[in-house]
Backbone:
């Protein structure tokens, strides 16, 4: 009978430890992902800005030397990320592939124009700066027109600022929720040992002596939970980098190291603080209050 009770108690204890580690790891994992979003918010915004093309359409009368000069000037410009020259034949092939039929068969001619697709650096993708660059390009006699998605640039410019602000607000709220959830799990774990705490206190053990094993146990659980969370973060970060290599999420090793260090220290700090106050609460309770 005694052995069965001991096994039951051990199972309860293991279950309690598992729930604490699971709570810590899940909360820290989500907190770490939100931290990645905060730290890479500008990089993600810049990535989408640099995908917006500015298409320079050239007149059919444009000379080859003029086209080459324009290509060279665009390639050397500070605002250019890349510039690709697309002939009217290449544009026709791409358009035919898109619509699924050869439109030149019934038109009898290729109405498309030679063009240069320009992708700009993110710092220059604002309504004002793009408009200045477009005006400069249009001033060239052999340029027929310059087309870009102006409404998209305006929305992207305004929304990136708003999103960055709200991500910071949500990160702060989530940090508070993380502290409360981990604190709740630790308190439940300590609550199961409240009679042990009071018994040790009644036989003369000091508060510091009683707290030490509980704090050390919780800190070890916090370390383990933080390691699990960081492993999950590393896996997610690896797959995001593989899926979107242009974001270069793994390029800033210092930033990633600081974020992982922050998650690890948060696991230690929250578990230590929660255990300290949880044990302190039961140390200050009267024996009769332990049953409520």
Residues:
């Amino acid at each position: 009978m005694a052995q069965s009770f001991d096994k039951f108690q051990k199972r309860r204890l293991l279950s309690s430890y598992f729930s604490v580690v699971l709570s810590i790891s899940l909360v820290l994992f989500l907190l770490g992902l939100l931290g990645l979003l905060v730290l890479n918010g500008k990089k993600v915004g810049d990535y989408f800005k640099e995908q917006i093309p500015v298409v320079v359409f050239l007149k059919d009368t444009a000379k080859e030397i003029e086209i080459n000069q324009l290509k060279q000037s665009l390639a050397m410009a500070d605002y250019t990320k890349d510039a690709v020259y697309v002939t009217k034949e290449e544009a026709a092939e791409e358009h035919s592939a898109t619509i699924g039929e050869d439109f030149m068969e019934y038109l009898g001619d290729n109405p498309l124009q030679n063009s240069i697709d320009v992708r700009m650096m993110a710092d220059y993708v604002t309504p004002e700066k793009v408009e200045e660059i477009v005006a400069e390009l249009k001033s060239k006699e052999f340029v027929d027109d310059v087309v870009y998605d102006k409404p998209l640039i305006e929305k992207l410019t305004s929304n990136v600022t708003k999103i960055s602000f709200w991500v910071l607000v949500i990160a702060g709220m989530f940090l508070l929720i993380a502290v409360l959830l981990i604190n709740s799990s630790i308190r439940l774990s300590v609550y199961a040992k409240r009679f042990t705490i009071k018994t040790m206190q009644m036989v003369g053990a000091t508060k510091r002596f009683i707290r030490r094993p509980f704090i050390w146990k919780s800190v070890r659980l916090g370390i383990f939970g933080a390691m699990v969370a960081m492993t999950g973060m590393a896996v997610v970060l690896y797959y995001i980098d593989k899926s979107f290599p242009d974001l270069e999420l793994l390029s800033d090793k210092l930033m990633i190291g600081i974020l992982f260090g922050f998650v690890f220290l948060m696991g230690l700090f929250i578990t230590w603080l929660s255990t300290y106050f949880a044990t302190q609460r039961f140390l200050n309770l009267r024996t009769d209050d332990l049953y409520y």
User: Anything to note?
Assistant: The longest strand covers residues 80-86.
